[in-house]
Design brief:
The longest helix is centred in the first third of the chain and has 26 residues. The chain is about 70% helix and about 10% strand. The chain has 6 helices and 3 strands, in the order ααβααββαα. A hairpin with a 2-residue loop joins strand 2 and strand 3. The two termini are about 20 Å apart. The chain has about 140 residues and is an alpha+beta fold. It has a 3-stranded antiparallel β-sheet with strand order 1-3-2. The protein has a single domain, classed as Winged helix-like DNA-binding domain superfamily/Winged helix DNA-binding domain (Arc Repressor Mutant, subunit A). One of its GO terms (biological process) is response to stress. InterPro entries: HTH_MarR-typ, MarR/SlyA-like, WH-like_DNA-bd_sf, WH_DNA-bd_sf. This is DNA-binding transcriptional regulator, MarR family. Pfam families: MarR.
Amino acid sequence: MPEDDAEALGELLVRAARGQRRRWRDTLAPWDLSPHHARALRVVTDRAGTRLSDLAEALHIAPRSATEVADALQARGLVERTPDPTDRRAVVLTPTARGRRVQQEIAAARAADNRDLFARLDAADRAALARILRTLAEG
């Protein structure tokens, strides 16, 4: 592949990713959550009883940053800290009823947004894109 083609493809991929991040931020606007906080809420709702260290690992952030994220979610009433039943020195994060509801609403909104975005492509193009992105993600 000529170098200029690779550069153009790289730029298109970056532009598409930026557009997707912008759509994701816009989708989250009704809940006034950042993508980072939304990912954390998803981790906690998917893994009830999540330790802060597990949250940090799942989000690829420092434990101190995970504490700040948990504080923000707790302040909004989306998660609560409870003692870890297996280690009295540790705490775990569990979603509140509101946190579970917000996570479900966000998941539905994101799914609808993704359907709208990918509706621009026919089925064959969507399948090709999925194959290509899997190949790139595996590398």
